[in-house]
Design brief:
By secondary structure, the chain is of the alpha+beta class. Helices cover about 20% and strands about 30% of the residues. The protein starts with a helix and ends with a strand. Bound molecules: FE2/S2 (inorganic) cluster.
Length: about 240
């Protein structure tokens, strides 16, 4: 992702506070990592994940095979949190559309079953809004999705495997969903979102949906997520879920 172009674009849109904060987070991430590398996750705010009542989410209490939604790494960028109910693979080698390679570490929590990915489809950026979502996790197979335990986008039927780093299983998407890096605190079972990895599409996303995002999130859409992120079932956020089958 061309982060610098994105930041300049934000400046042009007048989101100066967001830009300053994003730039300082980016600079601090670069300092920690010793420079930019496609295989190094990009650090953003370290956000504690909480339930709609403000209580810290416990990894062991996340319902299995349900679509949960939060917004990260920006106030306006949706992400899925999933407890797959089984361990994922570890150290999965993946590649973006631009052929940048990266390694997805796998699920976290006691069972290594909790994962998070950007909910912005890697094809044409379909994403969950308050009105409707064309993309979500499908626990069961259907005539349209055919497979169980996949992330399915009804727009043009791209399908991703969340147990395999959101690798593309079928459909027109050319790269996995960007991964949200989670940190699990074993002593408390709390979860933090800390970084993103893979083919980020936030620049295109903001350019494509600026007006819609400002209606949904006001002038905060492009601001980095706060240090506390509310996680909720997708049904509580979206009025309608497209099932396409
Ligand atoms: S936008 Fe998701 S498959 Fe086209």
């Amino acid at each position: 992702m061309h982060r610098r172009g994105f930041l300049l674009g934000c400046t042009a849109l007048g989101a100066c506070d967001s830009v300053a904060l994003a730039r300082s987070i980016e600079a601090s991430a670069d300092r920690r990592s010793g420079g930019r590398s496609e295989d190094v996750p990009r650090a953003w705010t370290r956000s504690l994940l909480v339930d709609p009542h403000g209580q810290p989410l416990k990894a062991g209490e996340i319902p299995e095979r349900r679509t949960l939604l939060f917004h990260y790494p920006f106030v306006g960028t949706p992400a899925f949190l999933l407890n797959l109910g089984r361990p994922t693979r570890r150290a999965v080698e993946l590649q973006t559309e631009d052929r940048d390679r990266y390694t997805w570490a796998g699920g976290v929590g006691a069972r290594r079953s909790v994962v998070a990915f950007s909910a912005i489809c890697a094809h044409k950026l379909a994403y969950p809004t308050r009105e409707i979502s064309f993309i979500d996790f499908r626990a069961d197979a259907s005539p349209a999705s055919r497979r169980r335990d996949v992330i399915h986008c009804c727009a043009e039927h791209s399908q991703y495997d969340p147990a395999d780093g959101a690798r593309v299983l079928s459909g027109p998407a050319q790269q996995p969903l960007a991964a949200i890096v989670l940190e699990h605190e074993p002593a408390t079972d709390r979860l933090y979102a800390t970084a993103t990895q893979g083919g980020e599409l936030f620049e295109r996303f903001f350019a494509s949906f600026e007006m819609k995002l400002s209606l949904e999130h006001g002038d905060r859409a492009m601001q980095p997520s706060a240090d506390v992120c509310v996680v909720q079932p997708i049904e509580a956020y979206c009025r309608q879920l497209m099932r396409c089958a």
